[in-house]
Amino acid sequence: MKLRPDDHEFDELCEICQKWFGFIILDAQPIVRGWLNRKWKLDTTHGVFLLKSYHPDRYRLYDESALVRALRWQSEIHTQGLPCPQILMHQGSQLHSTPSGQRFMVMTFSDGERLIPGQATYGQMYSLGTATGLMHRLLLMLGGVPTQATFMVPEVPERIRDWDNVLKAMEQNDKHDLYAFAQHQLNASQVIDIREFRNAEMGFAHRDLWADNLLFSGDGLSAILDFDRLNADYLELDIARAILSGNLASETFNVDATQGFLDGYRTQREFPTGRILRDLRMVWYMESTWWITPNMDQHTVPPQRFAHEMDWLARNMHNLPSLLSQL
């Protein structure tokens, strides 16, 4: 099975997969999605699978022990009913290595349609909220409550200095058309009260719960994908990330679909009325410096989307209570 005559890395992966997992690969189609890592849809004598090979430059960014734990826990919560792919094991491990050192994994292929950002229905968000609550509950059972979150909340003066530096860099590089984006972030940072984040709930979070990692069949969630970043963190970051991704369309925030997510989440876990305000402020405080940058004019489509979400939140922070405080 060759995709290109010189694709020796893929040949090696196919040989290992067929040897270890006992299937014969009948067809393979590359999946061009994501950053650096390579993926293929494999049609085999034992069913349809997804093969994922980690690029060395991407793999170096992972904490290997956290990645191994994430894949192990994905397998465990799959068996407990969470809609997510099942990972194939070899010698007790979900993360594998070829003789040449390629790191890879194989999982069941999940059917479904990816969500168009901002276009989620009440039913889709209800289904996603239910699954997110179940995921958080199961992960708390597996890992307990961690003592330290991955996101270290910076003090407000530090964040203000960050925005001052971004504004200076934009000025120095004559990127005046970007100046307003950073100014909106600075304005919001000057009035944020981060003391409320001290009460945020810690657990083990997916940490990449956005439209590209969600598959739906009609109003039902087919699968949550890509658990590679799963780690100790604030659970509300998952909630806010999913809600932003599904419910913000240009300048319109879908309150009904947000209610849908929270209605679903509450079937699995408690969620106090109005807490979504803190969740959204927290995800903004964490992510804004990732996406509003002096080089944001070079963003590809997903970072453009994230930058818009951060800009919208900064500009509408004062309007959120009237929109969402009753949810």
Structural write-up:
One of its GO terms (molecular function) is amino acid kinase activity. Belongs to the pseudomonas-type ThrB family. The protein is of the alpha+beta class and 327 residues long. The protein folds into two domains: 8-109, Phosphorylase Kinase, domain 1 (2-Layer Sandwich), CATH 3.30.200.20; 114-324, Aminoglycoside 3'-phosphotransferase, Chain: A, domain 2. It has eleven helices and twelve strands. A hairpin with a 6-residue loop joins strand 1 and strand 2 (38-44). The longest helix is centred in the middle third of the chain and has 22 residues, at 122-143.
SSE arrangement, N to C: HEEEHHEEEHHHEEEEHEEHHHH
Largest sheet: 5 strands, antiparallel
CATH superfamily of the largest domain: Aminoglycoside phosphotransferase (APH), C-terminal lobe
Strand order of the largest sheet: 1-2-3-5-4
Please tell me what the overall shape is: globular
Detail the poorly predicted runs.
Answer: none
Helix-strand makeup class: alpha+beta
Rounded to the nearest angstrom, the distance between the terminal CA atoms is: 53 Å
Number of domains: 2
Strand content range: 15-25%
**CATH second-level architecture of the largest domain:** Alpha-Beta Complex
E-strand count: 12
CATH class of the largest domain: Alpha Beta
Tally the helices.
11
Q: Can you give the mean pLDDT?
A: 96
Query: What is the CATH fold-level name of the largest domain?
Result: Aminoglycoside 3'-phosphotransferase, Chain: A, domain 2
Instruction: Indicate the radius of gyration in whole angstroms.
Output: 21 Å
**Helix content percent band:** 40-55%
Domain Aminoglycoside phosphotransferase: 28-270
Protein name: Aminoglycoside phosphotransferase domain-containing protein
GO molecular function, one term: amino acid kinase activity
Family: Belongs to the pseudomonas-type ThrB family.
